C-alpha cells in the first residue's frame, strides 16, 4: 500500500511517498518558491538519481502536477501509474475545536476547514490549496486531513482557557489549541513502546525542540497541557518567535515605534526569539558555533531557551503523580547533545541525571538517562510523515 503525504506551506509543497508494509519512504521531495520567480521541484526516489525541475510554478496545482509526473517517470519514478497511490494524507495546521481526530476529507470537511482559516491565516490557506490540487488531479483517491492541533483536544479547560473575559472564548474561540500535535503523538507512542508501557498508562513530558518548539504534558497517553497557544507564538522562545512575555509589551512597543497590529505581529513572529536576542541567527547550529567562539549574546539566547525548557518541565511535573519519561525530539532535541545535557543538568535538584556517554549521539532512538535518574530521559527522532501516513491508512481502511 502506497500513501502520499503532502505538507503545503504558502510557497512550498513537501511530499513523501511511503510504502506502508515496510514503512519505507520510496520517494520524497520539495517544490519551492511556488508563485515566486525561481521556482523548482526536487524529487528523489530511493536508489535513483535526484531529479531537479526548474520551471515556473504558478500555483500548488502546477507543483503537484510535476511531483505526480516525477513519481510515474520511467527514469526517476517509483510507480507505474497514479492508481498505485492508495490514499493521500494532508498535514493541516489548525483544526480548531472541530477536529479532535484526523478525518476523511469530503465537501463538508472542506467547508469547516475554510471556516477555520481565520484561526491560522498563514497556514491553513496553503493546506487547503494542496488538498484542492490533489482533488483535481487525483479525483478518485481518498484523502485524509491530519491536524497539528488534534492531539491536544484532550486538554481540560483548566489548561486551555486564558484569563480573559470568558466571552472572548465564546465569541472568537480564543483558547490554547496546541501545535506540533502529530509529533507529540508520534513520540508518545514510540516512548510507550520503548518503556514497555501501555499507551493509556504512560505519563510523559515531550519536548519538541526545533525551529518552532513546544513542550507537552502527556497523561495516560493523552495531551493534558502544552506550552504553545492560540497561535504558534506562545511558550518557549523559538527561532524567530518571542514565546511568553508580558502582554503589556505589545501595546507599549506599538505606541513607541508607531507600529500597526500586523507590523507588531511580524516583529514577534519573525524578528524575535533566539534570532532577536542573539542578533546572530535563528538556527541553533549557528548559535552553538557563535557561542563557542565567545559570542555572549548567542550564549545568552541559548541560556534563555534552555532555562525556559526547564521551567516548563518543572511546571508540568506538578501536573502528574509520576512521570515515566522526558522525551527530546525535533531538530534541536534529536541532535543537540549540549542542549539535552545542559537542560537535564539544571534539573539535578529533581533527581534527573543524564548519562553523558549514552547522550553522545544524534538523531537516534535511545534512553540516555543514568541508571539512578529519577525519570528516564529519551531521545526519539520525530516522524510526522509516518504518523500522517498511519492515520491515513487507519481512516481509509475503515
Ligand atoms: P526542525 O524545525 O525540527 O527542523 O529543527 C531545526 C533546528 O534544529 C535548526 O535550528 C537547526 O539548527 C537545529 N539543529 C539541527 N541539527 C542540529 C545539531 N546538530 N545541533 C544543534 N542544533 C541542530
Give the gist of this structure:
Helix content is 38%, strand content 19%. With 398 residues, the chain is an alpha/beta fold. The two termini are 15 Å apart.
List keywords for this structure.
8-stranded mixed β-sheet; 398 residues; 14 strands; 6-stranded mixed β-sheet; alpha/beta; binds adenosine monophosphate
What does this structure look like?
- The chain is an alpha/beta fold.
- 38% of the residues lie in helices and 19% in strands.
- An 8-stranded mixed sheet has the order 5-4-3-2-1-6-8-7, with helices on both faces. A 6-stranded mixed sheet has the order 11-10-9-12-14-13, sandwiched between helices.
- A hairpin with a 2-residue loop joins strand 10 (213-219) and strand 11.
- The two termini are 15 Å apart.
- The mean pLDDT is 96.
- The structure holds adenosine monophosphate.
- Adenosine monophosphate (AMP) binds next to helix 10 and helix 12.
End-to-end distance: 15 Å
Strand order of the largest sheet: 5-4-3-2-1-6-8-7
Q: Can you count the beta strands?
A: 14
> Which of globular, elongated, flat, extended, rod-shaped describes the shape?
globular
Could you spell the SSE succession in H and E letters? EEEEEHEEHHEHHHEEEHHHHHEHHHEEH
Low-pLDDT parts are none
* Structural classification: alpha/beta
Largest sheet properties: 8 strands, mixed
Oligomer state equals single chain
Roughly how many Å is the radius of gyration? 21 Å
Beta-sheet strand percentage? 15-25%
Quote the average pLDDT.
Answer: 96
Q: What's the total helix number?
A: 15
Hetero groups bound? adenosine monophosphate
Q: How helix-rich are the residues, as a percent range?
A: 25-40%
Amino acid at each position: 500500500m502506497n500513501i502520499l503525504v503532502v505538507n503545503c506551506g504558502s510557497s512550498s509543497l513537501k511530499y513523501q511517498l511511503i510504502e506502508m508494509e515496510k514503512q519505507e519512504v520510496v520517494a520524497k521531495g520539495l517544490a519551492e518558491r511556488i508563485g515566486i520567480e525561481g521556482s523548482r521541484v526536487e524529487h528523489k526516489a530511493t536508489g535513483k538519481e535526484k531529479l531537479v525541475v526548474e520551471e515556473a510554478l504558478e500555483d500548488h496545482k502546477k507543483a503537484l502536477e510535476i511531483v505526480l509526473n516525477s513519481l510515474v517517470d520511467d527514469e526517476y519514478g517509483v510507480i507505474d501509474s497514479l492508481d498505485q497511490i492508495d490514499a493521500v494524507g494532508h498535514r493541516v495546521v489548525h483544526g480548531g475545536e472541530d477536529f479532535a481526530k484526523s478525518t476523511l476529507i469530503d465537501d463538508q470537511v472542506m467547508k469547516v476547514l475554510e471556516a477555520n482559516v481565520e484561526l491560522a491565516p498563514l497556514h491553513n490557506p496553503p493546506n487547503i490549496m494542496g488538498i484542492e490540487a490533489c482533488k483535481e488531479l487525483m479525483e478518485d483517491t481518498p484523502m485524509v486531513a491530519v491536524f497539528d492541533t488534534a492531539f491536544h483536544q484532550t486538554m481540560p479547560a483548566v489548561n486551555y482557557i486564558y484569563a480573559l473575559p470568558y466571552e472572548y472564548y465564546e465569541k472568537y474561540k480564543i483558547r490554547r489549541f496546541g501545535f506540533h500535535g502529530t509529533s507529540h503523538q508520534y513520540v508518545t507512542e514510540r516512548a510507550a513502546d520503548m518503556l514497555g508501557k501501555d499507551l493509556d498508562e504512560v505519563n510523559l513530558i515531550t519536548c519538541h525542540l526545533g525551529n518552532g518548539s513546544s513542550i507537552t504534558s502527556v497523561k495516560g497517553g493523552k495531551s493534558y497541557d502544552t506550552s504553545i497557544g492560540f497561535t504558534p507564538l506562545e511558550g518557549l522562545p523559538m527561532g524567530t518567535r518571542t514565546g511568553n512575555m508580558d502582554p503589556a509589551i505589545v501595546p507599549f512597543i506599538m505606541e513607541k515605534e508607531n507600529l500597526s497590529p500586523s507590523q507588531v505581529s511580524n516583529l514577534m513572529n519573525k524578528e524575535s526569539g533566539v534570532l532577536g536576542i542573539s542578533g546572530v541567527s535563528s538556527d541553533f547550529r549557528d548559535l552553538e558555533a557563535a557561542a563557542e567562539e565567545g559570542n555572549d549574546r548567542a550564549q545568552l539566547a541559548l541560556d534563555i531557551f534552555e532555562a525556559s525548557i526547564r521551567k516548563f518541565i518543572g511546571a508540568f511535573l506538578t501536573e502528574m503523580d509520576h512521570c515515566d519519561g522526558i522525551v527530546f525530539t525535533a531538530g534541536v532535541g534529536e541532535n543537540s547533545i549540549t542542549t539535552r545535557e545542559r537542560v537535564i543538568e539544571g534539573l539535578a535538584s529533581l533527581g534527573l541525571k543524564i548519562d553523558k556517554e549514552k547522550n553522545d549521539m544524534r538523531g537516534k532512538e535511545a534512553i540516555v538517562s543514568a541508571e539512578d535518574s529519577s525519570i528516564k530521559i529519551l531521545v526519539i527522532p520525530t516522524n510526522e510523515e509516518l504518523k500522517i501516513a498511519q492515520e491515513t491508512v487507519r481512516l481509509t481502511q475503515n
